[in-house]
Amino acid sequence: MIDLIPVENHAHAQSVVDEATAHADAHRAPDGLGYTDVYVAPEPLVPLSLRAVSLSTLASLLGAPWQRIPRVTSGYSSYREDLPNAYAYSDGNHVLYGSHREGLVTTLHLHPGPPNEALIDLLHALGQGLRLIVQDLWRDQVVDLRSRQATAEYVRGL
Hints:
Layout: E1 2-6, H1 10-26, H2 55-62, E2 67-68, E3 73-76, E4 79-82, E5 86-90, E6 95-101, E7 104-105, E8 109-111, H3 117-130, E9 132-136, E10 141-144, H4 148-156
Antiparallel strand pairs: 1-8, 1-9, 2-5, 3-4, 5-6, 6-7, 6-8, 9-10
Helix pairs in contact: 3-4
């Protein structure tokens, strides 16, 4: 999962990435396909909810290319369940999604499409405006989105 979290979590996020990497190394399946145990990442020490970002503020920060997806569901096989406290926005290539409580954003995640300059610009703007970092447990990275160079290197590596 790719989490966008407050910059105050930087040191903790790096320790989570390091723990997850060590856990993966220690629990690789004997045949090399998969793992023998699951790592459950802890919540950030400083939650995004402390930024008190409303869904309407997030939509404004995202801008016109990003449209709200009207219905977020979860499920498996043919079973689907509406998630009333979830939200998602897409620009047609990438998806930003998460949960909210009474219209205030509590989590923010990225599902990236092909790397492009628009994503670099957006993530950098969110990093500066909301003081955010990326904690990417798929790529074992923590990236300070306030740095355009770090953001660009990260996005180009997706």
